[in-house]
Amino acid sequence: MVNYSRSGPAAGRTTMDRAFAALSDPTRRAIVARLARGEATVSELAAPFPVSLPAISKHLKVLEEAGLMARSKQGRVHRCRLVPRALKQAEGWIGERRRVWEHRLDALGAHLQEGDR
Amino acid sequence: MNPNTATEETTIELTRVYRAPRARVWAAFTEPEQLKRWYAPVAGWTIPVCEVDLRVGGTYEIHLQPPGRDAYVERGTYVEIVPEQRLVVDLGIAGEQTTLTVELLDAEEGTEVRVTETGYSSREIRDRHLGGWTTMLSQLEQQLEQQLA
Questions:
Q1: Interface predicted TM-score (ipTM)
Q2: What mean pLDDT comes out for the span B59-88?
Q3: 10 Å Cβ neighbour count for A52?
Q4: B98, CA 20 to 30 Å: which among A40, A117, B137, B149?
Q5: What pTM does this model have?
Q6: B33 close to A (CB below 8 A)
Q7: pLDDT at B145
Q8: CATH of range A15-116; options 1.10.150.20, 3.90.1860.10, 1.10.10.10, 3.30.428.10
Q9: Which range, A42-56, B26-40, B58-72, is most confident?
């Protein structure tokens, strides 16, 4: 999923909107800052906050849905890590237009090949 | 765009080589029925409307349709047309001014396509959208790169 337009009334809930919405919350920013130092389990992430584990899980889900974080399961332990690509993608115009054109030029390649048959 | 607003110029450039003659690649960039088949910006999007008036000063209109949402309308004006070689378009994306240049060059066994897009995004618009996040994200990115290094 790629963000096409980052402004205008029709922009809707694009990837970048989701990323920035996710980062608008101080708890989630703190979680991201913690993950920037390295992988962590859900309980490690929850430890500094005076909120319940389910509340932290909710924050983690928002970060996941925004493409900023991924988790892997080792037995019963969920390990969380940042997704560097998503952070890079949130950089704005350059990343956005580059993604659009990379997708298009791939599609153009497929289109040109189809014509050969 | 408000001329008093500070603007920042940004450019992307991509190059690909296709095993197809220049005439065919040119047609893919300029014929509506062909554009409909590959110009969508994202997988899963469609192009229900594509109108092209290929002459200098002529315009094109492409409706980029995400599933289940309103289409984005991309409108461009052809600034320079050198058949099978060079196409320059002024386009407005989300109210911002962008110039798109497509160059076709002969390559071994095909055509080299060079796409350059230069955007002038007003700092005001950018800041409104990004707030202080850009700084935070670039800091995070640096940290991540150190981590991964």
A1: 0.73
A2: 92
A3: 10
A4: B137
A5: 0.56
A6: no
A7: 54
A8: 1.10.10.10
A9: B26-40
B92 secondary structure, DSSP code: E
Contacts of B144 in chain A (CB under 8 A): 36, 82, 84, 87
Partners of residue A109 in chain B, C-beta under 8 Å:
16, 18
Q: Given this model, what pLDDT does residue B58 score?
A: 96
Residue type, A50: P
What angle, rounded to 10 degrees, do the helices at A53-65 and A15-22 form?
150
Measured between beta carbons, which residues in chain A are less than 8 angstroms from residue B110? none
**Chain B residues inside the 8 Å CB shell of A97:** 12, 117, 119
Strands (E), B3-125: 7-18, 50-52, 59-64, 72-82, 86-93, 96-107, 110-122
Size of interface A-B (CB pairs under 8 A): 122
What is the structure's pLDDT at A97? 76
